[in-house]
TrEMBL record:
GO molecular function: S-adenosylmethionine-dependent methyltransferase activity
Lineage of origin: Bacteria, Bacillati, Actinomycetota, Actinomycetes, Kitasatosporales
Signal peptide boundaries: none
UniProt-recorded name of the protein: SAM-dependent methyltransferase
Domain Methyltransferase type: 27-119
Keyword Methyltransferase among UniProt keywords: yes
Xref: Gene3D superfamilies: Vaccinia Virus protein VP39 (3.40.50.150)
A Pfam match: Methyltransf_11
Classification via InterPro entries: Methyltransf_11 (IPR013216), SAM-dependent_MTases_sf (IPR029063)
Transferase recorded as keyword: yes
């Protein structure tokens, strides 16, 4: 799944037709519990799941899967140049770094020429609205152009969660500046079958404003 809307890669084919994934070397960046890598392995690909969080990778290990789990920083990938055919990231790494170009340059480095990167992030327009699923979440409460990060702190004032906001224009310029060609920009619509509601996600909001932005990029 590329996001809370429920867009499935088997349906979307953003990495390419599922039958073409067999034998491909694929890097999942910010893998969490490696859900994407697990799906890729079932298609016959050779995925590697990378995440900064050791605890997340422990969870991935408990779930199981016959692919490598790598604990490392997405801005300093421990792989040789040209190691992968494809890279993917579903809400992983890129929203959580202050300078996403560091990650994009590293991913480009480890991709082979013509390699594809597909990544999804929270749609930037959501930053202008309250994080509420009901009608109160449909009024603009902040400037879309305010790039102040969202920060959660513990009782001692230490940051425990940080997410960085960049506009759509920022994301496009990051992609191009790091040597990628933007092939597609997907804004999934909320499907009728998805009745889930949690956090700021709901059918009400999802049918009115986009929640996810998916960037399909290729290394020339």
């Amino acid at each position: 799944m590329w996001g809370p809307e429920g867009l499935d890669e088997a349906e979307a084919g953003l990495l390419g037709p599922p039958e073409d994934l067999r034998g491909k070397d694929v890097l999942e960046v910010g893998a969490g519990a490696a859900q994407c890598a697990r799906w890729l392995a079932r298609q016959g690909a050779w995925p590697v799941a990378l995440d900064l969080s050791h605890r997340q990778l422990q969870h991935a290990l408990r779930i199981g899967g016959s692919f490598p789990l790598v604990c490392a920083d997405a801005a300093a990938l421990p792989f040789r140049d040209g190691s992968f055919d494809l890279a993917c990231s579903a809400y992983g790494a890129l929203p959580f770094v202050a300078d996403p170009r560091l990650v994009l340059r590293e991913v480009r480095r480890v991709l082979r020429p013509g390699g594809r990167l597909v990544f999804s992030v929270t749609h930037p327009i959501r930053w202008a609205f309250p994080d509420e699923p009901g009608p109160e979440g449909l009024s603009v409460s902040a400037s879309y152009f305010d790039r102040t990060p969202y920060v959660e702190q513990d009782e001692e004032g230490r940051a425990v969660y940080v997410e960085h906001h960049r506009t759509l224009g920022d994301r496009v310029r990051d992609v191009v500046a790091c040597g990628f060609r933007l092939v597609d920009l997907v804004e999934p619509e909320w499907p009728e079958w998805n009745t889930s509601e949690w956090g700021g996600w709901s059918p009400l909001r999802g049918r009115l404003i986009p929640g996810t932005a998916i960037f399909v990029c290729e290394r020339d």
